[in-house]
Structures
1.
Amino acid sequence: MALPIVAVVGRPNVGKSTFVNRIAEADEAIVHEMRGVTRDRSYHEADWNGVHFTLVDTGGIEMGTEDAFQGSIRAQAFAATREADVIVFLVDGKTGINADDEEVARILRKSDKPIMLAVNKMDTPNSVDEMWEFYQLGLGDPWPLSSMHGNGTGDLLDALVDELKQLPEQDEDEPEQTINVAIIGRPNAGKSSLANCLIENDRSIVSDVAGTTRDAVDTTIEHEGRFYTIVDTAGLRRKSQIDEDVEYYGFVRAMRAIDRADVALLVIDASIGLTDQDQRVAGFAAERGCAMVIVLNKWDLIDGPDAKAEIREKIADRMTFVGYAPVISIQAITGKRVNRIWDAVDTAYANFSQGISTSKLNTWLQGIRDFGHTISQGKKILKIKYVTQTAVKPPQFTFFANHPEIVDDNYERYLENRLRDSFDLTGTPIKLKFKRKD
Ligand code: GDP
Ligand code: GDP
C-alpha cells in the first residue's frame, strides 16, 4: 500500500525546510530524497514511532512577481488539499499571521483533510497567551514548536501519527466529495420508501460500497452533479419482512449511521405524530453534531389545514433542541415533494461545513457588546474580547473572555440565537467554546 502523504505548506521563510529536515533527522529516517514529479516539491520518506509516511515539502516553489507569489501559495495549498492525507500548515510565531497565512487557511478550511497548525520559531517555552492569535485561522488548536531547536516537534509528530492511524482505508472507486446522508426514524415511518425515491428516480447509482461496519451498505448516487452517499441502506431496495425491519432499523443501527453522516434525515410518520423515540434519535444526532432535516412523511394521510398546522406546531414545541432543522412534508410513497429534500440537504451541508470569517464574527460581537447584555457573578463581569471559528462540520466558535467559567447555559443559548439571527446556520448544530483571555 502507498504510504500516506503528509504535506507541509506555508509561506516562504516560515521554516518549512528546517521543519522537514528536523523531522527526518529526529529519527534519521530519510531513506531517500528524490525530486518529485513536479519540479517544485521534494518528497522524503519518514517515520515516527514506526509509522511510515511520505513528507512533501512544498518549500521550493519559485517566487516571481507579487501576483505569482500569491498564486503559488494558493496553488501549493490546493495541491496539498488534493494530494495529502494530512496537512501540516506552518506559520511563523515570531512575525505572526499575515494575509497570505489567512488565504492559505481559508483554502485549507474547505478541505476534508486533517490539518495541523504548527506555529514555528517558538524557540523558548511559551505561554498559551502567545498562541491565541493563531486561533483566528480557524484550524483548531495551534501546535507551538521550534524546528530549529526541536521543542514541540515530538508532540506534533505524536498527534500527526495518531491522525495517520485513523485514516480510512483507501477506496479508489469511491467518488471524492460526497455528502453522507443517514435516513433515520421509527420502523414503518417510510425510510425505505424515501431512500428508494432518492435512489431510484432516474438517478445514476454510482456504487454500493460496503461500509465500515460489517453489515452496513452505503449507496452513492449522483444528483445534479453532486454526490450523495446514503449510508447504511442494506436491503432498502429489496423489501424485507416487517420484523426484520424492526431489528434492522433498531436504535443501534440508527446510531451507527448517524456516526458516519453529515446530514441526518429524520423521517417522522405524520399519521402517528411525534414520538419519544423520534425525540431521542434527534437528540442523539444533535449531540453527535450532525446536520438535520426533519421529514414529515405520509402527508397524504393528514386531512385539512388544521390537522397539518397542529402537527407542525407540535414539532416546533417539542423539538426546540433541533430548532435549526428545516421541516419538510412529503409523500414518500408517490415521491410527491421529495425533490425538495435535495435543496434542504444541500443548504444544511453548506452551512454545516462553512467557515465564517473572523472579521465578520467580530463585527457581530461588537453588536452584542453594544447591546450590552452580559452576565456577572459576584464581582466578575463577563467581557468577551474576541471570537473566531475554530472548526467546521459542525461549525465551532471559540470565544475568548475574561471569565469564561461564569458562562452558563442561558447565556450560551443567547449567543447561539444571536449567531443564528446574523448568519445562515439553517440545518446545522453549532458548538460554542469559551477560553480565557485577559
Ligand atoms: P522555508 O522557506 O519555509 O522553507 O523556510 P526555511 O526552513 O528556509 O527557514 C527560513 C528561515 O527561518 C531560516 O533562516 C531558518 O534558519 C529560520 N528558522 C526556521 N525554523 C526556525 C525556528 O524554529 N526558530 C528560529 N528562530 N528560526 C527558524
Ligand atoms: P420504514 O420501515 O421506515 O423503512 O418504512 P417503509 O418505507 O417500509 O414504509 C412503511 C409503510 O408506510 C409501507 O407500507 C409504505 O407503503 C407506507 N408509506 C410510506 N410512505 C408513505 C406515504 O407517503 N404515504 C402513505 N400513505 N404511506 C406511506
Note: Residues 26-40, 60-70, 207-215, 235-249 have pLDDT under 50 and may be disordered.
2.
Amino acid sequence: MSIVVNPASRPDQWMAAMAAELPEEDLFLWPQVGASGSVEYVLAWEMTIEDLTDFPNLKAVFSLGAGVDQWMGLAEHPELGSVDVVRLVDPAMSDQMAAYALHWVLHYQRGFDQVAGLKQQRQFKPPSQTDGSDYTVGILGHGNIGRRVSQAFIDLGYPINAWTRSGGRGHPDPSVTHFIGSEQLDDFLAASRAVVNVLPNTDETLGLLDRKRLAAFAPGSVFINMGRGTVVKETDLLNALDDGPLRAAVLDVTDPEPPPSASALFEHPKVVLTGHCAGMTVVSTASRVIADNIRRLRRGEAAFPLLDPERGY
Ligand code: GLV
C-alpha cells in the first residue's frame, strides 16, 4: 500500500522528509501515483474530488496546512467512501503565528507606526505608547493556535480576553478572561484594544464581524486577521477604518484571496497586507507530526485530530 505526497510547494523537501520518517513506506510524488488501487493515504494542501476518486482504497487525506476549509466538500461525495481528513496541528506553526501576532500588536501598542513620521520631521523622540499591562489583547478563537498566541502575550504581561463560540474544549484557562457565544461577543470586542482573529472559515464564522460587531470594537483598537478573510466583508472593514472605531487592520488573509488588484485594501493607509505568511507549514516538524499519525494508523490506532464536517474544522 502506498502514500501520495502532493505539497503546494517544496516537493523535494517534503519527499526527503517523509522518506526519512517512513523509510518502509512506498511514497510517490504527485502526479506520480504508482498503482492507483494501492494508494491508502494522500498528503496534500488541496486536491480535486476527481483526482481523489481515482484511488478506490483511499483511507485518509492529511492536510498540509492548519486550515481545512479546502477539504470541507469531501463529506458531500459518497462515491469517495469513508475518507478521513487528518488536520495538521504543528506547534511550530502555532509558534510562528504567536510571533506574528506579537509583532503587530507591539507595533501599534508601542507606537512604532509613528516612528517613520517622527524621523521625517527630524525628531529623535519616543512615539506615544500605552502601557502593556493596560493593553488587553483579545483572541478570537481559543483552540491550539489561539492558546499558543495567548501564552505569548501572557508571558509578557498583557491581559488576555479569549472568545470562543461554545466555551472551547477542556478546562477554562484561569489566566485569561473568557467570553462565550454571540451574546458575549460585543463585550469581548469592546474590552479588547487589539483583536487577533484565528477562527477557521465555517458557516458560523462567515461574516461574524458584521457592521454591528465592528461598531462594538473599542475606539482606537486594532484588528489583526490571521484566521480566514471570510470573517469580515471588505466594505464593512473599510467602513470601520474610515468612519468607525478601528485604528488599523493587519490582514494576513482576505476574501477573496488574493484581493483583486482594484481592491481598496491596496491603497488604504490604515491597512497592512502580509500575503498569508503568518503561519507557514514547517516541513521538518510537520512531516514528523504526519508520520507519527501514519505510524499510529499502521498500528491500528486512530489518527488525530480528524476534521469534523459537522463542526466545520
Ligand atoms: C494557513 O492558513 C494554513 O491553513 O496552513
Note: The pocket of glyoxylic acid is lined by residues 65-67, 279, 281 (CB under 6 Å).
